[in-house]
Design goal:
Distance between the termini of chain A: 22 Å
Low-confidence stretches of chain A: none
Radius of gyration of chain A: 15 Å
Strand content of chain B: 25-35%
Number of helices of chain A: 7
Helix content of chain A: over 70%
CATH topology of the largest domain in chain B: Thrombin, subunit H
Number of domains of chain A: 1
Structural class of chain A: mainly alpha
Number of helices of chain B: 5
Shape of chain A: globular
Number of strands of chain B: 12
CATH architecture of the largest domain in chain B: Beta Barrel
Structural class of chain B: alpha+beta
Largest sheet of chain A: none
Strand content of chain A: under 5%
Oligomer: heterodimer
Amino acid sequence: MEWTKQFVRYVIVMILQVLLFDQLQLWGACHPYIYVLCLLMMPITLPHSASMIIGAAAGLVMDVFCNSLGVHMAACILLMFIRPYLIGAIVNDKDRLNEQISSRAIGTEALIKYVVIGVLIHHLTVFSLAAWSFSHIWFVLLETLVSSIVTILIIIGYNVMSYR
Amino acid sequence: MQTLLKILLRYSNFLVFIALEVAAFLLISMNNAYPRSSILSTANDFVAWQHAQISEINSYFGLKHQNEQLAAENAALRNQISSMESTENDAPIRYENAKVVQMTTDRLHNYLTINRGAKDGIQSKQGVRNEDGAVGIVRTVGRNYSVVQPLINTHTNLSCRFAKNGYIGTLQWDGKDSRFALLTDVAAHMVVNQGDTIITSGLSAAFPEGIPVGIVENSTLKEGDSYYTIRVRLHTNFKRLKYVEVIQNAHQNELEELTDGMD
């Protein structure tokens, strides 16, 4: 049941990503990848290797839509590899981490920290790999900053709405 | 043996991580080489079909502008026909009409997807233009759709020349503004004026000679430099691009075979 819910959420988020967020042409540097929401919010009980394989698959699907073969895949694998260590570093009380990652389970402050760091790692990797050179470094950093802000706000907004 | 297994098990997560990342980087390096797999790009039928639906909806919002553009294109074509009737055309070139179903203009590596593919005779490396001028080069070909790498992609290099005296340069994009590109490799001894016309050189198989590319916006020559930095205002307005023509040169394969392995 839990996995059906996860999958339905992923499909809805991908539709929003492709139909809405990929069409944005704001300021030339705003390319939020809101699909990381599904990766960040996956239950922490998932085995580490399995979560990386799911990340790879989600990244590959995004790459097909962006003509950027491998870029999102590499970023998602990295994100899913770091995820357990990130949670371990942020959350002190491991007992509260039973299944879900939510503000109720780990606290609002920890949740925001987790989302901000996770999204920044993912977006910075995506934009750096897509540019594939240091000559665009300022553009890459600007793109990361602007896009991450939008993605972070949307993921936190989603959490606020679903756990009220 | 048992210790080895224990070590492998202990670091299995890290090994899975490394294996997956290696696969991803292989895909990235594959992506920078010709020919690309059409399934894993927007030339994929399913993905392109979705984009086609979105562009169908969007196209209702630009009908007036589209009509004006089509009328202008018709006029230009009629002119072409009349000039062709009077002169013998030696280049066996066909134009295939296509609609742009998906495009980005604000990234470093922009691509556009068109609704023509292998079944319409589209091949990799064919040139793409619209009524204003050069647009880009076909990169990946699917059965019904293709992906075009436009001039506004930092990977693109296009051989161009000055219309006035035939001097050759290479057109590249700096990733900043979709209206401008840079012309490089133009030696300092040439006189470059604002407003000079830049056309395709005909040195690559993709474009015949003389397709308009843009006009010189400004040029700088720093003390001690032996090459100009020239900013070219592109004729093609990529932000409003809806219809393009793919240039099908019957001699393209032969030209490519001859030049293959020379670079």
